[in-house]
Amino acid sequence: MARVYNFSAGPAVLPEEVLQEAAKDMMDYKGCGMSVMEMSHRSKMFQDIIDTATADIRDLMGIPDNYKVLFLQGGASQQFAAVPMNLMKNKVADYIITGQWAKKAAAEAKKYGKVNEVASSADKTFSYIPDCSDLDISPDADYVYICENNTIYGTKFKTLPNTKGKLLVSDVSSCFLSEPIDVSKYGVVYGGVQKNVGPAGVVIDIIREDLITDDVLGGTPTMLKWKTQADNDSLYNTPPCWGIYICGLVFKWIKKMGGLEAMKEHNVKKANILYDYLDESKLFKGTVEKESRSLMNVPFVTGNEELDAKFVKESKAAGFENLKGHRTVGGMRASIYNAMPIEGVEKLVEFMKKFEMENK
Ligand SMILES: *Cc1c(COP(=O)(O)O)cnc(C)c1O
What we know:
alpha/beta; 9 helices; 360 residues; binds pyridoxal-5'-phosphate; 16% strand; 7-stranded mixed β-sheet; 14 strands
């Protein structure tokens, strides 16, 4: 069995222990004679899986009792519409534009109401997080929206914006469970799981209960109304059963690793190995302002497109997969999510040093 070091931004690397456990249970999950893919979502067996997953993510993130956890489909992109549909009572929202995903979310919200772009880092190709301590928040805004970790550009909010009392909605797709967060500071936290938590096909919403109501925009589809999903504990229709099961295994793995504090420590250590080298290298350069650097996604360039292409090609041949940068940015990007072992980053840096020597 040859596993590569997989630096994909998503779908991304999963913990080997989780894959092994899923493989072990593939033909016969806990003596029931079938796999999780084959069982009824109304069975006791599956109810236990989703109940345990819910309890474990609550425990890991310290989710307060007045927040609901929903396992949904349609990816993070579907929530770009669900957020305004469920929250735009005044039909006004403030968006902070720190990259493609925030831009897409804002564009979707514009279909339903007035969107104010209260801050943006577009002026420097999204290479930093703008100062959000004193923004011109709209008095009638229904919420303030951020993309907390910008997967494509490699930036992360280190402090949350001052929303001046307005509800904060955050897309945490690419930093989900990478470090502790204070859920009580948010109205809604949501993320697609395929970056750091599980297989594609599941999006997890953590929503303050008072925001889950029948008072949604006219024409909101039944499936996109959070109350439909909340009233049915994510089982209104057939949920992504297999994906939820794998997320549950990942939650157990994170608990075993020591929880989110330990995860953060592990992620800081890993990211520093790479950033320290980028800071000293004469060939490679990080593209993000230091204070805004993500622990999860690390973009870098040589400054020469041909050399970038050569690096991507040679790194692949050496067993480092998916280091090519996003098609809109170019260069390279190493996504080093929870499941990327330290050795993966150490070996990558060794390889980069060798490449630098050979291409001086
Ligand atoms: C990947 C990503 C998305 C899109 O996720 P889908 O599940 O493909 O819709 C949205 N936001 C962020 C921050 C992402 O990284």
